[in-house]
């Protein structure tokens, strides 16, 4: 009987951990809180944020730990495979490693913050 009780107790944390609380913070400091399933695509959160802020989805870049998020990603999938370009300096010798593939685990945790930044366009030539 105690085995059944343990199984039921094991299910409770799993059910609770199926959801994640995320905060989206705009450049103006405005914070919007969301509770979504870990398996929900982030585009649902992105669209809801843009609707609440009355902005076009194409005018906002969503960043997590400085890296741009894609709408088809889920909080559990934000263990991103990133192509990084590194510059290493050692005793005035410069080595450049381009197209260096690295798997980074950036799994989102409950209470994590996503930055919503306005796209910068334009610029003048001198």
UniProtKB/TrEMBL annotation:
UniProt cross-references to Gene3D superfamilies, sorted A to Z: Phosphatidylinositol 3-kinase Catalytic Subunit, Chain A, domain 1
SMART domains reported in the protein's UniProt record: UBQ
SUPFAM superfamilies: Ubiquitin-like (SSF54236)
Pfam family, one: Rad60-SLD
Disordered as annotated region, ranges: 1-22
Domain (Ubiquitin-like): residue spans on this chain: 18-81
Entry protein name: Ubiquitin-like domain-containing protein
Source species of the chain: Nyssa sinensis
UniProt lineage: Eukaryota, Viridiplantae, Streptophyta, Embryophyta, Tracheophyta
């Amino acid at each position: 009987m105690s085995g059944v009780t343990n199984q039921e107790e094991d299910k409770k944390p799993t059910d609770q951990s199926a959801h994640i609380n995320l905060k989206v913070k705009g450049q103006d400091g405005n914070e919007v809180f969301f509770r979504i399933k870990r398996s929900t695509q982030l585009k649902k959160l992105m669209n809801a944020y843009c609707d609440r802020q009355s902005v076009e989805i194409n005018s906002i870049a969503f960043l997590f730990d400085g890296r741009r998020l894609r709408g088809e990603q889920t909080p559990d999938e934000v263990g991103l495979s990133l192509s990084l370009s590194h510059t290493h300096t050692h005793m005035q010798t410069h080595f450049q490693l381009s197209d260096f593939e690295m798997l980074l685990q950036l799994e989102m945790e409950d209470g994590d913050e996503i930055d919503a930044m306005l796209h910068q366009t334009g610029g003048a030539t001198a």
